[in-house]
Amino acid sequence: MVEAILIDLFSLPANLQNNIQGLLCNTLETIEKCSSIPAPFVYVMCCHSQRCKWKGEQESLLPALRDFQSLKKRLEVVHALSTAAALYTIKQRLDEKDLSVIKVILSSVRKDAMKVYIDHLFTSVYQFEFEDLQATSDYENLQIAEPQSEGQMQDVALIQSEIQMYLESLPSLNGELTILRSSLIPDDIFLHGFTTRAGGISYIPTLSSCNLFSSSKRRDPQIVVKENLRRLANAAGFNPETFHRVKIDHANAVCIMGKTEPDSYDGIVTNQKGVTIAAPGADCIPVLFADPVRKACGAAHSGWKGTLLGVSMATVNAMVSEYGCNLKDILVVLGPSVGPCCYKLPHESAKEFHRIDPSCVRLFDSSDPYIDIRRATRILLESGGILPENIQDDSVTDQKQNITFCTACHPDKFYSHFRDGANFGTQIGFISIKD
Fold first, then answer.
1. For labelling, which of 80, 152, 179, 330 has a CA lying 20 to 30 Å from the CA of 161?
2. Full-model pTM
3. CATH architecture of 179-433
4. Residue 253 in contact with residue 315, Cβ under 8 Å?
5. Where do the domains of the chain lie?
6. Which residues cross the membrane (predicted)?
7. For the segment 322-374, what is each residue's pLDDT rounded down to a tens digit?
8. What is the pLDDT of residues 246-271, one digit of tens each?
9. 229 with 275: CB under 8 angstroms?
């Protein structure tokens, strides 16, 4: 069932502006007669240059809307300088109303280009269907005429460039971009940090604003995440073109940069300068590793499954075997993640943490005990040979030095799957070796 209708008038030639009333009247009449719901949301997408000539968007359309009162209450005209700007504004309206099924009514010459815009700005959460803008004898030229600039937009690279330029122009949301850094990792050798949720352009409440992970199941498209990463890279000082993030499998495989990349892995290590590696987290622990002696580093994503499978020590062992690192030289920092104050698992899973150490489980006899995946990670690292003083986690008592915050307890600072549900955002921990 169509939830919203988008009428694309963006590329109509200026000399046909006087015919817009009739065209809209015909289109709206068809919508009202054929719609499966009484009053779908209707968005009319117009070029900014038409705005002045029409002497106001809503006012100019009133004659065409006079006989469509139910639609009038749910109709909005969106004008912009570019298709990317207009379509992104409409996406915001759709997301505000949690709408996902959209019919696009447009000139046939715009269809291929519109599909490219949609592929970049939307995810598979949304469903689109297309219908030709019906142009009767008075408007038959609409199917032929198209401004040269819009014709050029048929090129995918140009469309992508237009979208990127528009996203770069957007203001940051939720304050300044903030990066948390550990005093344990020497900043003369390594560039590193953990992100918070501020300073990006993602606007959906649970993703706002510096979301750094895109999924087909969420509403934040990859191109928005790419813009958030670009802003992070500018603030942190790394090259986003040499950025590598783990491919999460909630297991313990490790990728060695420069060797064949596995299909999925939760750990990654490198000794290449200028290459930034990262691990995401939205309750799971982003863990960073640094060896200032051998000048090697690593990152791991450690959820409860990865913790039990030993992903942190697997990353350490990769650094030892690949780069000749000494266990006593490796520094490990646990980033923001869900704390034992909030995180629960079913009793059967809790048993595995209890076997690591009883201190990793609170209220063990309950059906859903509280689990401390950070403590379990520390215990496994120490058992593997990492020095206790070379591990930074929530045991730090100086709050000025604390960076292992509970993600679930700080909704203003961090994303949390546990707290926010399926449409959650993601922060990362990143590290690189300075040139």
1. 179
2. 0.90
3. 4-Layer Sandwich (3.60)
4. no
5. 4-137+144-169, 179-433
6. none
7. 999 999 999 999 999 999 999 999 999 999 999 999 999 999 999 999 999 99
8. 999 999 999 999 999 999 999 999 99
9. no
